[in-house]
Amino acid sequence: MTRDGVSPRPDPFGAGGGGGSLRKIELFLVVITIAGTIGVLTFAAGTFLEAAAEGIEPAAQSEDQGEPPPAIEPPPAEPQGAEEPEPEEPEPEEPEPEPEPLLCLGGRRPDGVRVKRPAVAIKVENAPVAWPVSGLEKAEIVYEELVEGGVTRFMVIYHCTDAPKVGPVRSARVVDPAIMKPYTRILGAAGANAIVQRALDKARVISINEVKAGSAMRRVYRPGLASEHTLYGSTKGLRKIGRQRFDKPPPQGVFSYGSLKFKGRKLRTVSMSFGDITQVVYRWSEGKWRRFEDGAPFLDGMGRQIAVDNVLIERHRINYSKGVVDVAGTPSTEIADTTGSGAAFLLRDHRLIRGKWVRKSVKKPATFKTLKGKEMVLHRGKTWVELLPTRKGQAKGSLSFSF
Hints:
Structural class: alpha+beta
CATH superfamily: YerB-like
Number of strands: 21
Shape: globular
Radius of gyration: 54 Å
């Protein structure tokens, strides 16, 4: 005890009592704390050195290892009222152009008829003794050509049309292949002499005569007329025979059809002379060109006057044949300029259009141009083509107009 009578408090760090053990424990804790701090510092230094070696900046250590990583800020919102762009619609593809419709030889669209069928040509007489002729009113194209004796004959062509009775059918001529080949190779004729037959064979014309035709040709009794004026043909029957060897339709665009582009001069009448015997007139009346021959209306088998939409006149140099004659010894005729060019005249819609024909090959049809070089355009319908002699050949023809 002290002088004050109070017992002294034991010194924990003193040598006596338990003070020595407590001090040792405190020293041990201090040592552990220092060692832990040194370890943390050593780990941090190692991490820094590794990051520096790899070129990566080490992430800053959070003071509180338990805090979550910083939140990623969302992208800034678009301003209010902004419309989202609409997706672009693909441009519509242009439709492929529709193919041009196939047309009949006369420029009309077929009406329940196979436009891809072949055309048929028939040689028809035009002697006054044989009038009236039959079936020409149904034809799409009719050619008129000069033959022996100053008379003419017709090359009658049917494509989309048909006629049960066409005639009188007469014999073929040397020029016939040049006329018909642009359209067809099927020809109905009463026959041909040896020279003409060789020309037909060379041109690969399928010539169908009375013997080959069977029921496609027939004789029709005509009181007072010789037998050569009594043969008639059927277009359906002749086509059926001919298409066994030739089944191609006429090419498209042989003639150009459409509205009248060149007014031309208003015309009332055209007069043509094929020589001393055949005189032909066309007169505009009631929307058609009406045919007259030898001063009288030219009638079909039903007693109606022939009336057409177009008259196309080609002037040609025509000479007499040195090898082909008829039974009386009269020489036949030959067209000297089946190719080349010459004067041409188109009558349509009460108008006359002047121009020229041009033909480069007998395998191709002629083309027709106006005097200004534009294409002649025909009225859709029936066309009669007049192969009229010029004054330059042995056979002479003439042409005049009344306006």
